[in-house]
Amino acid sequence: MTPEQYQRLKAVYAAALEVDTDQRAAAVAAACAGDDDLLNEARTLFAFHDRAEVFIERSAFAVGAHLLTKYDNYSLSERLVGHYRLIKELGHGGMGAVFLAARADDQFRKEVAIKIVKRGLDSEETRRRFRHERQILAGLDHPNIARLLDGGATEEGLPYLVMDYVEGLPINQYCDSHSLSTTARLQLFRLVCAAVHYAHQRLVIHRDIKPGNILVTEEGTAKLLDFGIAKLLDPQLAETIGHTATEIRLMTPEYASPEQVRGEEITTTTDVYSLGVLLYEILTGHRPYRVNSRRPDEIARAICEQDPERPSLVVSRDARSSGAHEGSQTKKPFNRSHNDEPAGLKRRLSGDLDNIVLKAMQKEPHRRYVSVEQFSEDIRRHLDGLPVLARKDTISYRTLKFVRRHKLGVAAALLVLLTVLAGILATARQARVAARERDQARLEKAKAERVNAFLQEMLSSADPQKQGSSVKAVDLLADAALRAEIDLSKQPETLAEVRRTIGNTYVGLGLFSQGEPLLRQALESHQQLFGMEHPDTAKTLHDLAELMRGKGEFAEAENLFQQALAIQRRLAPAGDLATATTLRNLGAVLLQHGKTSESEAPAREALAMTRRLVGNNHLNVAIALSLLGLVDEYRGNLSEAEKLYRESIDVFRQLGHAKALQTLVMMNLATNLTSQKKFDEADGIFRSAIELSTELFGAEHHNVAIVMTHYGRMYFLKADYRRAEEILRTALQIERKVLPAGHSESAQTLVTLGIVLTKNGKAKEGEEYLREALVIRQQALPKGHWTTANVTSMLGECLTVQGRYAEAEPLLLAGYEEIKAALGEKHPRTLEARERLPKLYEAWGKAEEGEKFQN
Questions:
Q1: C-alpha span between 655 and 48 (Å, rounded)
Q2: C-alpha angle 616/504/267, rounded to 5°?
């Protein structure tokens, strides 16, 4: 090459660098017109330029992390992690790798996805936060969220998470490969919004919403992955690593919000923004920002400074020939259904959808939708042809929406206008009624949005950059309660609602003493604001009754339920779901209080009312069936109870969610079959319940221990004391580990283990467990409760075995009489207590005194 040719090539190269990437080839060809040698040299030079750009723009940290991850993944292949054996790597990223794994034991067959954290995020602080946070995340039970099943650390100390394995396509690929219409894409997107909103209500922010974290199965079910993972794995990286590169932060830059890019506080509106980016891509096939490279600083600048084009303008280009604009990863024609070709799609996106997407993607968080629920609701309104929040609410706009919804009706109205003039007065009157109802609905909606905004704002305080990485849910609730008293002092209705919401959240966490003052304050406020005859007053009475039931103060709980029920019956004489729920919970507290006969009427009415209102396939129906089954079982009607349990389980399975409740009903059914001596069938159902509970909560959870306790009791009734003792000791070991000392949940395990040891020749050790259980029951339950009497009777049997007859007699007599009074003479528990008395007198040498207790 001559010096002149080199200088000309240099000039062509420099000029082409100033041109956008997709126009660069044409610019080079034009500059080299007539000189094929120069054109070939220029093309070769730009080929090296493109390859070099990718390497140079990657940070040394990222290259090193990639190599380290490859080494870690290689070393982990085919390894055992907890109860699972790794099969193959599914993918890896900045935080670690995800593997397909399967159970390595014979307990049951289950494929899962295991995410193993890479080295550098395995500090003691991270492991401690894992133990705390995974319990919260495991409680996310939603049909569109891939559940977190378990977690722990490998032998090398690397934290890992066990999650549902979802086989599907990223949501954008699924939409394109199935040629979904715009309406179908919006409906699928709303399912994702419902999952994110569900988690926001439980104080969990996703932080990394992107297509790769939303898989859609072949059946069309969307599953949101990695929920809360970024929150788990962010031990103030900005402080420990520094701001070396934007890509180090726990986020995906293309879908990150401006506040994430700038390292500012994260709130629920951060997820709103990422959902907006996702919707933009689903609707247009393009990402919203123009960038010429993958350099983090260029991506960050685009996100923080560029205004995205309206979606309708993007699709107005010929999608089939242009591929994607700069920065988009879409390199093939955009595949859509026939009805949504570019011209028609532009018309569909113009207006509402343009404004909805861009409102969600506002740079300033306060200008976005206040919640994911509001975002999804605006999409619903658009689909229903209603005015949306993202558009200015002008008369002409509302009129246009009305006409589009009712084209035929408007045309007909014009034809018969003269005939309806006579009805103007009546119509005006109805309009006033409708306006009042609309105003009331708007007031309720506004109140709900104010409460929602306040509660979601408190989520921002969970950000590690703001309060440190050790923030807990209970601390958030306490802070929110204090802030509410100050911030909402001039909004009494909103303050009352916030008090009730926070109080109920405390109840859900089992913190009754913290929740009770808030619910009582909410009740007082509602009575002052609305009086007694108001739905809010009845609802707060119901919630306070639920709290008292959780505390074991059944008499007060019953009184509060009765007050709420009386108000609800006057407000809705025909009955509604709120009334049915109160009836059901009243029946439950009467049953717990030992008033078995009285519990049947409200339980049956609750079931009948619920079926009348919502049909058979509803969660409330499944719960009501289960309660009625318990009532029949306590009354000794075992076969009828069995039918009700099976019917309840069938409803749960049809619904496909609320599996935690389904597990408890399965346990009740298996216990019922045990009482009927149907041990083989009971064994299979117990095993299924343990498997399902383990999948939901992990192996070390008190719900698993509860099922195992009843399973151990089955072996006790089969007289297989060795196996029963083995199962019950495992259950007690779990409860000792995860529950505080003296917790009421552990009493049943202690009782059952105590009587098993008594039967197995270890009566002295069994006595210790029985006395511990008796103290717990006496402290937790009202005097004379039949479950306390049952422990008393079993302790009497234990003392009988030890030859301490004089001590045993009063315990056995008192236990029998109290159980009989509560459950009736024919109940299995009553019969068990009665059978212990003849055995005492025969061993004591007073067989004649035991004859009156013989059948």
A1: 57
A2: 100
Dist CA 268 CA 591 (whole Å)? 41
User: DSSP characters for 125-144?
Assistant: HHHHHHHHHHHHHHT---TT
The number of angstroms, rounded, from the C-alpha of 571 to the middle of its chain's C-alpha atoms is: 33
pTM for the model? 0.53
Helix (H, G, I), strand (E, B) or coil at 112: strand
Question: SS3 of 110, please?
Answer: coil
Question: In terms of Cα–Cα distance, which of 433, 471, 276 is closest to 355?
Answer: 276
Q: Which long-range contacts (CB under 8 A, 24 or more apart) does 451-454 make?
A: 451/494, 451/497, 451/498, 451/501, 452/370, 452/371, 452/373, 453/370, 453/371, 454/480, 454/484, 454/487, 454/488, 454/494, 454/498
Beta bridge partners of 148: 163
Token pair 């658009």 in the structure block, residue: 382
| Contact status, residue 336 vs residue 345, Cβ threshold 8 Å | yes
- Round to whole Å and give the CA distance between 232 and 122: 11
For 149, phi then psi, to 5°, come to: -95, -35
Q: Half-sphere exposure of residue 706, counting CA atoms within 13 Å on the CB side?
A: 19
d(CA 405, CA 393): 17
Backbone angle region of 700, left / alpha / beta, with phi > 0 → left and psi within -120 to 50 → alpha: beta
Cα separation, 100 vs 713, whole angstroms: 36
Helix (H, G, I), strand (E, B) or coil at 553: coil
The neighbouring-strand residues paired with 162 are 114, 150
Which residues on adjacent β-strands are paired with residue 17?
Answer: none
CB neighbours of 426 closer than 8 A, spacing ≥ 6?
none
Three-state DSSP class for 294?
coil
Catalytic residues: 208
Place of tokens 């008190």: 702
Q: Which range in 145-154, 347-356, 792-801 is most confidently predicted, on average pLDDT?
A: 792-801
CA distance 162 to 225: 12
CB atoms within 10 A of CB 512: 19
The Cα–Cα gap between 218 and 178 comes to: 10
Q: Identify residue 93 by its one-letter amino acid code.
A: G
CB proximity list for 392: less than 8 A, separation 6 or greater:
none
Is the CB of residue 506 less than 8 Å from the CB of residue 518? yes
Integer Cα distance of 601 and 21 in angstroms: 76
Residue 177: phi and psi, rounded to 5, are: -65, -25
Per-residue pLDDT at 250? 54
Output the six-digit token pair for 242.
């520094």
Neighbours of 227 (CB within 10 A): 27
CA torsion sign for 286, 291, 297, 302 is negative
Q: Which of 315-319, 357-361, 473-477, 743-747 has the highest mean pLDDT?
A: 357-361
Rounded to whole angstroms, the Cα distance separating 472 from 183 reads 40
Q: Which residues have a Cβ under 8 Å from the Cβ of 797 and sit 6 or more positions away?
A: 755, 758, 808, 812, 836, 839, 840
Distance CA 542, CA 578 (A): 9
The answer to whether residues 662 and 649 touch, using CB atoms and an 8 Å cutoff, is: yes
Q: Is 298 exposed, middle or buried (0-12, 13-18, 19+ CB in 10 A)?
A: middle
Q: Is 595 left (phi over 0), alpha (psi -120 to 50) or beta?
A: beta
Say yes or no to pLDDT of 764 above 90.
yes
69-73, 418-422, 486-490: which has the highest mean pLDDT?
486-490
pLDDT value of position 400: 47
Count of residues making up the chain: 855
pLDDT (tens digit per residue) in 227-283: 656 555 444 433 333 333 333 345 677 888 998 888 888 888 999 999 999 999 999
Look at residues 558, 599, 606, 556 and name the one whose alpha carbon lies nearest to residue 584. Answer: 606
Q: List, in sequence order, every residue forming a beta bridge with 92; answer none if it has no partner.
A: 97
Predicted confidence (pLDDT) per residue in 421-475, tens digit? 555 444 445 555 455 445 545 555 555 555 555 565 555 444 443 444 344 667 7
Taking a C-beta distance cutoff of 8 angstroms, is the pair 171, 222 a contact? yes
The most confident of the ranges 310-314, 589-593, 677-681 is 677-681
